[in-house]
Write a structure and sequence with these properties.
alpha/beta; 4-stranded mixed β-sheet; 46% helix; 6-stranded mixed β-sheet; 2-enoyl-CoA Hydratase, Chain A, domain 1
């Protein structure tokens, strides 16, 4: 039976809220690219794509500026509204980092001591996490290098993650003047045990891709280092499953001379992401061969558990993070931003605690006593 008698509007409506004003251009920026879906035999599928949202600030380890935050929001919204897009891929430029969080230079030189301004910035940050969690396409974090601090948080907002085996994961907040309240304190207890989540949030310890894979924080890990024509695993990490002194050391870092040699190899090695992208392609091909409505409903049902805790705390965290810009964040970000001058990227924590115990007011004398001095 024909349904031609039903009245219909001609053409397709445009549901985008933004144009391209926050995407593209010279770094630091966010790039947006459509890449064709590729089948298992290497065949290109006509008219279907993955949307790549790329943090393009490799010179600053893909830390995001205010404009880049707007670009991420715009990119995920654009992917969500594009009928041709099967999945959204979130990654970074270069081979050193996916993202190391907010741009410390911008934090130190503009937002520190301006809590109201930082509150406005946090409204944008919360919108960035919301844009990922609300995207009506599956979202995959392609972890091409360090995923640290806010980078860890926006990465965990994605549905799945595939990682280069050179990637590093962790938080930086309590060491550099903040708290992991941009998602890590909400998402990590879902991915890890409560004590693992606690230690990861507060210790500022870096974990390898193999360790977080063992703990269930990423879906796939692939080697990206080449020795001649051959792929080799990251030599900085133990990848044999064995027990030492009763403790599993798979995924832990090697030490001593082995670590020195590994770091030298990493610095000089050729990086090849073809295996990582093959894993990514297999995931996207799986998505391509599912009912899109059933797929996104299933994803939204699982996301809702993450969103529950994120939505409970994001506004209170926004206000605390803003207020903190007048005290500990001011010290932490300025210490990091002036490390080339002082030789240190952190304050004198012992002196800070001593002055605090004495009831010393948080004034210029206090700040001068704990910040590093020019060398």
């Amino acid at each position: 039976m024909s349904l031609d008698w039903l009245p219909r509007e001609g053409g397709l409506k445009d549901h985008d809220l933004w144009g391209d004003e926050f995407l593209g251009g010279d770094p630091p920026t966010v790039q947006y690219e459509l890449k064709p879906i590729i089948g298992p035999g290497g065949e290109q599928v006509d008219g279907l794509y993955s949307a790549w949202i790329v943090l393009d600030n490799a010179a600053q380890l893909n830390s995001y500026t205010t404009r880049m935050v707007k670009g991420v929001i715009s990119g995920f919204h654009r992917a969500s509204m594009d009928r041709r897009v099967v999945a959204a891929v979130f990654t970074g430029a270069g081979n050193r980092a996916f993202c190391t969080g907010g741009n410390t230079k911008e934090y130190a030189e503009y937002y520190s001591s301006r809590p109201t301004e930082y509150g406005l910035y946090m409204d944008l940050f919360n919108g960035m996490v919301d844009a990922i969690l609300n995207c009506k396409k599956p979202t995959i974090c392609r972890v091409n290098g360090m995923r640290i601090a806010g980078g860890q948080e926006i990465g965990m907002a994605c549905d799945l993650a595939v990682a280069a085996d050179t990637a590093l994961f962790g938080q930086a907040g309590p060491r550099h003047g903040s708290a992991p309240d941009g998602g890590s304190s909400d998402f990590l207890p879902w991915n890890l045990t409560i004590e693992q989540a606690m230690w990861n949030c507060i210790s500022c310890e870096l974990w390898s891709a193999y360790k977080v894979y063992r703990l269930g924080l990423v879906s796939k890990v692939a080697p990206v280092l080449k020795d001649g024509d051959n792929f080799v695993r990251n030599p900085l990490v133990v990848t044999d499953r064995y027990v030492e002194d009763g403790e599993l050391v798979y995924g832990e870092f090697v030490t001593g001379d082995a670590a020195k040699g590994a770091k030298a190899f990493l610095k000089a090695a050729t990086y090849d992401y073809s295996r990582l992208d093959a894993e990514l392609g297999r995931i996207i091909w799986t998505f391509t061969n599912l009912f899109p409505g059933c797929l996104i409903k299933s994803i939204d049902s699982v996301r809702q558990k993450k969103k529950f805790f994120w939505d409970q705390t994001k506004l209170a965290n926004r206000h605390w993070l803003a207020a903190n810009m007048a005290t500990e964040a001011f010290l932490g970000f300025h210490a990091f931003n002036t490390k080339k001058i002082t030789g240190k990227d952190v304050i004198d924590f012992v002196r800070y605690r001593q002055l605090q115990a004495e009831g010393h007011p948080f004034d210029e004398e206090f700040m001068e006593a704990v910040l590093g001095k020019p060398q």
